[in-house]
What we know:
By secondary structure, the protein is of the alpha/beta class.
Amino acid sequence: xxxxxxxxxxxxxxxxxxxxxxxxxxxxxxxxxxxxxxxxxxxxxxxxxxxxxxxxxxxxxxxxxxxxxxxxxxxxxxxxxxxxxxxxxxxxxxxxxxxxxxxxxxxxxxxxxxxxxxxxxxxxxxxxxxxxxxxxxxxxxxxxxxxxxxxxxxxxxxxxxxxxxxxxxxxxxxxxxxxxxxxxxxxxxxxxxxxxxxxxxxxxxxxxxxxxxxxxxxxxxxxxxxxxxxxxxxxxxxxxxxxxxxxxxxxx
Length: 252
């Protein structure tokens, strides 16, 4: 697993006051944040092109053409950074259909809020430890392949049934679980309940081939962070991860 020394963050905005607020917040995070503020899109694009940026925060007040150019540059980078647009109100988010960023973050109103926002964003760049739980080795391989297509760094382990999954959870080395509903022995709901009892901080995504809303409701009631119906795709994983980190995915 790759160690992240610092979160290299680029903020693009004409607002010095907002930059100062974010810089104050950056100085308080547990993970060191290397914070850079630029006001010109050309400078942002140049820095992104160096491949040394993990996170790009774009003020919604930046001109539409500039926002588009920055996101396009990020997506074309050899090491694409996460791109987030800072907005006052997500309901009035700018239209960016030509170059869709990863998500939206509400503009912080204090240094404390800025610290919390940057801490959430940092989770998107720190490798997450994922446990895939399914009694089918074929399906575990398929899910592993889907996870490998995520925008975000994931370190994947596997378990063939619920009891094995609980042993892995007991090590304290798992961040979230992709859990099949239909399994022999402990089924998905039973396994989910035990995971939450052992370690409530572990997020669980229930997966099933059965389009049953009753199952989805039971999973959420037992503490599932999300419910995915097979087949699902890397973009679905990215959306789940964004929401887990408290970041609103950009509406497509």
